[in-house]
Amino acid sequence: MTLFSDLSLRPEIQQALIAQGYRTPTPIQAGAIPPALLGRDLLGIAQTGTGKTAAFTLPILQRLSEPHERVHAGRVRALILTPTRELAIQIRESITAYGSGLSLRSAVIFGGVGQAPQVTALRGGLDILVATPGRLLDLMNQGHVRLDRLEVFVLDEADRMLDMGFIHDVRKVIATLPAKRQTLFFSATMPVEISALAARLLKNPARVEVAPVATTVELVEQRVIFVPAASKRHLLVDMLGKDPSMDRVIVFTRTKHGANKVAEHLEKANVPAAAIHGNKSQSARQAALEGFRAGEVRVLVATDIAARGIDIDGVSHVVNFELPNIPESYVHRIGRTARAGAAGVAVAFCDLGEERAYLRDIEKLTRVPLTVVEAGPLSVPPPVARPQPSAAKPAPQQAHRPQRREEPNRSSGDHSGRERARRDSAPSSNRGGGGGRDRSREASSGPSAFGDLVSALNNGPAGRKSEGQR
Ligand SMILES: Nc1ncnc2c1ncn2[C@@H]1O[C@H](COP(=O)(O)OP(=O)(O)OP(=O)(O)O)[C@@H](O)[C@H]1O
Ligand SMILES: [Mg+2]
Known about the structure:
seven-stranded parallel beta sheet, globular, Rossmann fold, binds adenosine-5'-triphosphate, alpha/beta, 2 domains, 14 strands, binds magnesium ion
């Protein structure tokens, strides 16, 4: 077993990890930290809640605390991009904690708040900047920050950062980076065509794959209840009333409006709830999250804005009030529970219409069939049969996923419901931090993603697909 003391990290960093209560590195940390310390580019894939943040932060802290030139005004040495403001804030907090014994300067910038304090923080130069792409580009365009001396570039939630919602902004950022740099990509999911793009952005990367892409954590018990859409709100209140083990619950809805409606319904039923989504002010978003973290709010009702990366202790249940049409989103949503070795329960409310197709896609991606339970107290679930005849069948346990889903613009009538769902949740034009960019298209993926990545790397540029072909 690898120990932190085996990883050649500075004593100040090891002390900070002890103070955090970390005894041994998680598998992704043991696998990723050594090649990252050697300065290699890296693609790290590991399940939700398994310590990817420290896997990229610790090598950065180690590298940047070596003797170095003075940091120049407005310049940054390491940049970490994230899809949401709340995740950016959280990663900055981890950097502060892991780097507490070092004298490195870090800051976080994101949209939805005044830029003046962020500009002040950038003025003298920074060792580490955590940012959402929109605000970063704004401040770059205004001349407040330059990335021409960047040493390390990180995309957390890399597949999300490289998909439609963010790729244009991320490309603009990458265009300003020096060619000689270290690039680190991390995620729990990596759809196949995005892995090809990732491969083009990494130079001779170490691939550290703790489990096949999109593997869910074993300690999360995954259940599905088949319920008509109109009965979902009633079912949710009923469950919360009957099951005291549901003490810290995140409920995911497909739309911002839906999140508001569910939160209002819960409040009316005397369940302390708060909504978080891209139409809320930044202060309301943070207040909802803090209230939930502090245990004042029993139920956080969220869009996918809270699906990725957010780390809150002791989330007992994740309820997919509506199933996501993008199967990777399910993996991230349920990953808000059962983190860092804890157990948790994920309950999907599957309607009797188009959501059954989403359920099939999810089970194909994760290779884990959900246990069907009847509506009722969930602590003792009675397994029941699925509705027949058109009900989703559990995907067989298999090493490789069957077929890739059709591209949405080529899909046939059979996928029309899914396309409609995508249009409903199309990204809005909010800049800076992902507010309003709740979702864009991701494709289904599986273990073969790494086959593609390997062949893309082996074939060299000629063998890779051009932008237009993807
Ligand atoms: N070596 C360790 N020992 C104990 N706890 C750890 C260790 N590393 C990280 N943790 C804790 O595990 C939790 C999850 O870590 P982190 O948020 O980095 O996960 P992640 O892999 O990035 O998940 P996600 O895919 O959801 O973003 C955090 O609360 C963190 O403090
Ligand atoms: Mg993370």
